């Protein structure tokens, strides 16, 4: 029971990677896992499956709602141990064709959303003297990718924020750790519509010759969220089967 007693928050927790993390944390005995998402159906399913999961309808872009959610968590639990900034979207196009709206929307969710959540919960962890923040970046944030100017900018930005916060939240001796996971290509609803040609190309460039499973990301998040990783901070862990460009 690696998460015993821990109060956890996972954004984008209703499906895909977020859902797999919510399930792993719940199975490993978390006191409560708040799954935050816009997808109420997915949240209800999780709540009915796990006693220690609470679904909360929340957009990571809504700063007022996030401030209210923080008050609620602190009133109910008195603390937060783990924050996973996982919610993310794509709006792909070559730069010539990318609209300003595509750019703004992806920045708002993937980059500012991570800032919005961490601005509320990071200081609470620092006050308590401990905590673990996990930001979900991407291989695309390290290597770039055709058609993903907006997405790559956010995922690279998430890595820069991870390193900054690792330093900021550890001031005054606080054991608040901040790390990022950079998944390769993982089977989730986000990647299910990728053309077969792209999937085959990705597999051929991946040392393990396959796409990853959501559980393989969730297991890494579990390690970073648990006390087993107590001396790891400011790191970007690639979980990509050896994908190289
Ligand atoms: P997904 O689309 O399957 O799930 C994303 C979830 O986030 C959905 O439930 C959605 O409702 C939620 N969401 C979207 N906007 C939101 C908002 N404003 N507020 C709250 N929730 C919101 O995607 P996924 O594949 O599970 O990806 C999860 C994260 O992992 C994303 O940040 C993504 O960029 C990253 N990632 C995924 C892969 C992959 O191959 N699947 C690879 C690298 C990185």
UniProtKB/TrEMBL annotation:
Keyword rRNA-binding among record annotations: no
Domain Ketoreductase: 6-189
UniProt-listed Pfam families: adh_short_C2
Keyword field: Oxidoreductase
Keyword Mitochondrion: no
Family: Belongs to the short-chain dehydrogenases/reductases (SDR) family.
Record-given protein name: Beta-ketoacyl-ACP reductase
Source organism: Marinitoga aeolica
């Amino acid at each position: 029971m690696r998460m015993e007693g821990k109060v956890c928050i996972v954004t984008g927790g209703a499906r895909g990677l977020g859902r797999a993390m919510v399930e792993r944390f719940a199975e490993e005995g978390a006191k409560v896992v708040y799954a935050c998402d816009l997808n109420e159906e997915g949240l209800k399913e999780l709540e009915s499956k796990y006693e220690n999961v609470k679904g909360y309808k929340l957009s990571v872009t809504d700063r007022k709602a996030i401030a209210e959610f923080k008050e609620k968590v602190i009133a109910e639990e008195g603390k937060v141990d783990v924050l996973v900034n996982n919610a993310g979207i794509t709006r792909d196009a070559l730069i010539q064709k990318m609209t300003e709206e595509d750019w703004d929307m992806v920045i708002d969710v993937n980059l500012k959303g991570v800032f919005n959540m961490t601005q509320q919960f990071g200081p609470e962890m620092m006050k308590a003297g401990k905590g673990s923040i996990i930001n979900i970046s991407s291989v695309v944030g390290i290597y770039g990718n055709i058609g993903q100017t907006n997405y790559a900018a956010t995922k690279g930005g998430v890595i820069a924020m991870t390193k900054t916060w690792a330093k900021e939240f550890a001031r005054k001796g606080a054991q608040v750790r901040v790390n990022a996971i950079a998944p390769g290509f993982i089977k989730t609803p986000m990647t299910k519509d990728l053309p077969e040609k792209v999937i085959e190309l990705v597999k051929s460039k991946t040392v393990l010759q396959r796409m990853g499973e959501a559980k393989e990301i969730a297991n890494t998040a579990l390690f970073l969220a648990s006390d087993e990783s107590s001396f790891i901070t400011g790191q970007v862990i690639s979980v990509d089967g050896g994908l190289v460009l």
